[in-house]
Amino acid sequence: MTVFSVYVVNKAGGLIFQYDHQKQNVEMEKTFSYPLDIKLDLQSDQISVVFGQRDGIRVGYVVLSVNGKTVNGRKLEDGSDAIELIEDESNYPISIKFGRPKLSSNQKIMMASMFHSLYAISVQLSPEPGSSGIQKLETDTFILHCHQTVTGVKFIVISDTKQVGVESLLHRLYTIYADFALKNPFYSLEMPIRTELFDTHVISAIEQTEKTGSAI
Amino acid sequence: MTVFLLHIYDRNGNSLYEKEWCRRKKSNLTKEEEKKLMFGMLHSIKSFVSKLSPKDSKEGFLSYTTSQYKLHFYESPTRLKFVVMTDINVGNIRETLKKIYSSIYVAYIARNPMCDLAEPINCKLFESRLETFMKGLSFFEDSKE
């Protein structure tokens, strides 16, 4: 039972809080000899696999590190260019670590506003009158639960398919939001929540849900 | 329990077939606009889910639930999309959707030389088979108002 991440979205669709609880990284490190049988290309500032699959490395995976050095964008941590390094035959054998692309903070903001609009569309498409938006979105790898408060703030929890008690966690998060964000005199509405007390309470609520299946 | 409606889209977003059994809310959109909106939403949900997924997913998006209805989704290998809306008490009906595809769509449309696969479905046999199949489902019950 795992909770992957928590999002809080304000009534305009802006992301005001995000927390990744479990680092669920699929990573694959392999030593390659020349020529590289996987086609790499720079896509949205990450070096990703565009053609060729082998040993669990799939199209869409990104290069995380080369010879143990972390890759940032197309540069290695020591400042050298990763693509040039991979293309140069004299550097082989080379060890490259691949992994599923992680969401950047910009992408997380995009995901939040995307969900905000999906929520609105699902209300419009309802065959029954008086429907709310998406409360639970099921996939084969995770379940997304969403609770929208009367003031329009959305609490979103992404957990694995076996996690129970997510509804109670959502209500606990709302209580924490009311207690440690709204009652904080230094917090301005609709703005990102940067309060240590809020963070620690969110983390402990998630941990409790994972352990006992209930946040209360 | 109730089945509200069924939609079938091809991979380009054209609506191939639609059937409504029970619909209380009249939407302020036209039929055409509504179908486009639904396809657009499903397309966005698919990319949303694949970006958010912690692991590589095989089937991807399965269903979503609101306070009033549940939308079930199945995509065939040829990216034909089957969408069924039911009430919220219906469980996982993936196998049912697969069956609509494999034993009704494939049998009466894909293998029918008279049917153009890119055109909206206009086949009496398909419609009557689908109707009997849907009415035979345990969760169909009193969809007729």
UniProtKB/TrEMBL annotation, chain A:
InterPro entries: Longin-like_dom_sf (IPR011012), TRAPPC (IPR007233)
Principal subcellular localization: endoplasmic reticulum
CDD domains: TRAPPC4_synbindin
Subcellular location: Endoplasmic reticulum; Golgi apparatus, cis-Golgi network; Golgi apparatus
Keywords: Endoplasmic reticulum, ER-Golgi transport, Golgi apparatus, Transport
Keyword Transport found: yes
Record-linked SUPFAM superfamilies: SNARE-like
Subunit and partners: Component of the multisubunit TRAPP (transport protein particle) complex, which includes at least TRAPPC2, TRAPPC2L, TRAPPC3, TRAPPC3L, TRAPPC4, TRAPPC5, TRAPPC8, TRAPPC9, TRAPPC10, TRAPPC11 and TRAPPC12. Interacts with SDC2. Part of the multisubunit transport protein particle (TRAPP) complex.
PANTHER family tied to this protein: TRAFFICKING PROTEIN PARTICLE COMPLEX SUBUNIT, TRAFFICKING PROTEIN PARTICLE COMPLEX SUBUNIT 4
Family according to the record: Belongs to the TRAPP small subunits family. TRAPPC4 subfamily.
Function per UniProt: Core component of the TRAPP complexes which has a function of guanine nucleotide exchange factor activity for Rab1 GTPase. Plays a role in vesicular transport from endoplasmic reticulum to Golgi and autophagy. May play a role in dendrite postsynaptic membrane trafficking.
Name assigned to this protein: Trafficking protein particle complex subunit
Naturally occurring in which organism (per UniProt): Clavelina lepadiformis
UniProtKB/TrEMBL annotation, chain B:
Locations listed in the record: Endoplasmic reticulum; Golgi apparatus, cis-Golgi network
SMART domains: Sybindin
Pfam families: Sybindin (PF04099)
CDD domains for this protein: TRAPPC1_MUM2
Keywords: Endoplasmic reticulum, ER-Golgi transport, Golgi apparatus, Transport
Broad class of where this protein is predominantly found: endoplasmic reticulum
Source superkingdom: Eukaryota
Gene3D superfamilies: 3.30.450.70
InterPro entries: Longin-like_dom_sf, TRAPPC
Protein family per UniProt: Belongs to the TRAPP small subunits family. BET5 subfamily.
Subunit structure: Part of the multisubunit transport protein particle (TRAPP) complex.
Protein name as it appears in the record: Trafficking protein particle complex subunit
UniProt lineage: Eukaryota, Metazoa, Chordata, Tunicata, Ascidiacea
